[in-house]
# Entry
Amino acid sequence: CTCTCTSTRYQSSSTCGQKIAALRQCAAAWSCVSSTNSLHAMNAALALDQGFRDHHTGAGHPESPARYVAVTKALQEAGLVHQMQPLDIRDATDDEIQLCHPKGYLSVVKAHIEAGASTLSTGDTQISAQSLVVARRAVGSVLNAVDLAFAGKVKRSFCAVRPPGHHARPAQGMGFCLFNNIAIGARHAQR
# Structure
């Protein structure tokens, strides 16, 4: 039994419902693995925090708090939440974010949020009053996952974070992402 989280079918799913169905299949795959070994024994960590729902993108936006609720529900229904090691949630620092994003871009994000803007001027990314706080926690969670892996404490982590963090460019929010959590995590791993 293997996890299909990263299968082409999951990544190319066109609707939220299809993505949630694929996530449930992924969770079922993890459950299959855990039927003979507990996930704690396999060193798996999970980043979940209700605060990730505080990034509001507006009515009808596809990247919404409802997605986080659906992911959490799928993980709970599969019995994974209690089988995995909780991953500490923390805020990333400016210096950590600047591993991939220039100071000027971080200043733009801060200014737009403080001004009450609903969209970053750099791209298609919706923002709200709590977006920076939530995005810092998303990055910090990924960095904690990297640290646990390098310390040999986990073999894998699942970071159920919002806003997503894999499309943003160095000086541009993009694809609903304020920061590129994945790239920052990779830079952090290189240090």
About this structure: The chain is about 45% helix and 5% strand. Helices lie at 8-11, 16-34, 65-77, 94-97, 103-114, 131-150, 181-190. Residues 131-150 form the longest helix (20 residues). The beta strands are 44-47, 85-86, 156-159.
